Amino acid sequence: MAQPQGVPDRQYLLRVFQSVDTDRSGTISAHELQRALSNGTWNPFNPETVRIMIGMFDRNSSGQIDFDEFAALWKYVTDWQGCFRSFDRDGSGNIDRNELRNALTTFGYRLSEPFIGILMRRFDRSGKGVILFDDFIQCCVVLHYEQFLTMVLSLKL
């Protein structure tokens, strides 16, 4: 039976997991996860993005993820990769200001140009006016979290 598109073979994921689980603990740390992920530039994934994702998928709050958590995280990253590619209109492997604006508008955000500029400065680690894949994930996750906090804080409890 063929795997649905975007769902990697479990054996493949197990090989990736085991290759980065260098201490053979059955869990991987943020540092080990960083080695398993690629942002498309052959540079390590942004450590802050890795830390955020560990926090999202670490169900027992151990600071590490087991294989099942890793498989869920891998699917999450793969889904974001498809999203990233759909907004990277010029195929450059990064998101420029206009592409970021288009992505965030599609996600339902109505942000001012100055705020888009703030996001670009915050998540453009290269200083080239573009956002790489891992930083795009972080930008979107942080925006979503901020939206959630705003909603919670606005509730009359």
Automatic annotation (TrEMBL):
**Coiled-coil regions, chain positions:** none
Keywords of the record, alphabetical order, are:
Calcium, Cytoplasm, Metal-binding, Repeat
Show the PROSITE patterns listed in the entry. EF_HAND_1, EF_HAND_2
Q: Is the keyword Calcium assigned to this protein?
A: yes
> Which InterPro entries does the UniProt record give?
EF-hand-dom_pair (IPR011992), EF_Hand_1_Ca_BS (IPR018247), EF_hand_dom (IPR002048), Peflin/Sorcin_CaBP (IPR051426)
Predominantly, its location class is cytoplasm
Record gene name: Pdcd6_1
One annotated GO molecular function is: calcium-dependent protein binding
Q: Which residues form the EF-hand domain?
A: 8-43, 75-110, 111-146
What is a single cellular component term in the Gene Ontology annotation? organelle
What is the official name of this protein in its record? Programmed cell death protein 6
Origin organism is Amphibalanus amphitrite
Q: Where in the cell is it found?
A: Cytoplasm
Cross-referenced Gene3D superfamilies: EF-hand (1.10.238.10)
